[in-house]
Amino acid sequence: MSSSEQPSAHFDFSGRRALVTGAGKGIGREIVALLSACGAQVVAISRDAGDLDSLRGETGCEVIAADLADANAARQAAEQAGPVDLLVNNAGISILQSFLDTTPEAFDQTQAVNVRAAMIVGQVVARGLIGRGAAGAIVNVSSQSSSVGLPNHAAYCASKGALDQLTRVMAVELGPQGIRVNAVNPTVTLTPMGAMAWGDPAKSAPMLARIPLGRFAQPRDVAQAVAYLLSDAAGMVNGVMLPVDGGFLSN
């Protein structure tokens, strides 16, 4: 299979209700499409009502418009989604500033979306599962930047390191309740946000050179890893940070 060909995986999520945050674009949108194609009833959360309208038209998903940087809005959106079996905390932002220029406002906003929203939405979903006596699965979309330092990504790297640790605590505490919690940690992924951060060849070439497979990730690569972790095929996988990085972290 050439690097330009995208693999195809199918899991059966019939009868399962999935909630995906940050669903309007990029990785989140691809996750919604894949889970819907695999039979899940999907609820998509995004800030952009236009993105949600087009996504609903493409996939038939339910939609909720909310700004997850607002703690109350995050909680209300999760509650509005109703009973959920599968959760993907994908919402994330990246504000590119050097360490010396990182502002408290940018740092706090990044943590609010990338970490705090995952905690709040995860709490609502987990409490619902426990209250129903149901098993479930949660996947947090993290990044290879949780393990390496990247220039101009101080707030982002810090948030993804925190998200990995949150994932581990969730796995330890929720596992006994039948709720598996894992993370996926992609390399540079060619989404609109990824293109903004890595569109300059002078910046992207050294990063690309460190990936043994010789390419950046596509949203589909990440979506399929998420689907696996949500599926019964990963029934004994809990507390894992799964790199989707073409071997970057092996260097």
UniProtKB/TrEMBL annotation:
Subunit organization: Homotetramer.
Classification lineage: Bacteria, Thermotogati, Deinococcota, Deinococci, Deinococcales
GO MF, one example: carbonyl reductase (NADPH) activity
Keyword Oxidoreductase attached: yes
Keyword terms: NADP, Oxidoreductase
Recorded superkingdom: Bacteria
Family: Belongs to the short-chain dehydrogenases/reductases (SDR) family.
Name of protein: 3-oxoacyl-(Acyl-carrier protein) reductase
Gene Ontology biological process terms, A to Z: glucose metabolic process; xylulose metabolic process
